[in-house]
Write a structure and sequence with these properties.
Layout lengths: L2 E5 L2 E3 L5 E8 L7 E8 L6 E6 L6 E3 L7 E6 L4 E6 L8 E9 L15 E2 L3 E5 L2
Parallel strand pairs: 2-11
Antiparallel strand pairs: 1-3, 3-8, 4-5, 4-9, 5-6, 7-8, 9-10, 9-11
Length: 128
């Protein structure tokens, strides 16, 4: 079964940092895929946090995490990271990664309905 696997979540105090990792099972998470990070807080809808293009050259962030989160990828290792700094309680939620097929580097970053493969998510809790 093709799916993504997240790791790196946990409990952290406000102002702390975490690095999430996204790998794949049953597929190769190489430069044929753009990857997005999403989060869902209790009682709220899922929101897109950050996206990285298949080449890694383009990135996008939701306004609330700009300047604090950094998305990156190691194509050779087939891992996508989300470095989260200066974490706030409102960053609490289940973080999931998703992959969208991108065979052409020139294609724009994917929309939500273009993501084909998803992970189960990892819990991030920011609290004292």
């Amino acid at each position: 079964q093709r799916q993504l696997v997240e790791s790196g979540g946990g409990l952290v105090q406000p102002g702390g940092s975490l690095r999430l990792s996204c790998t794949a099972s049953g597929l190769i998470l190489d430069d044929n895929y753009a990857v997005g990070w999403f989060r869902q807080a209790p009682g709220k809808e899922r929101e897109e946090v950050s996206v990285i293009s298949s080449s890694g050259a383009s990135t996008k962030y939701t306004d609330s995490v700009k300047g604090r989160f950094i998305i990156s990828r190691d194509i050779a290792k087939r891992i996508v990271y989300l470095q989260m700094n200066n974490l706030k309680p409102e960053d609490t939620g289940v973080y999931s990664c998703a992959a969208a097929l991108r065979l052409d580097y020139g294609l724009p970053l994917p929309t939500l309905n273009e993501y084909t493969y998803w992970g189960q998510g990892t819990q991030v809790t920011v609290s004292t």
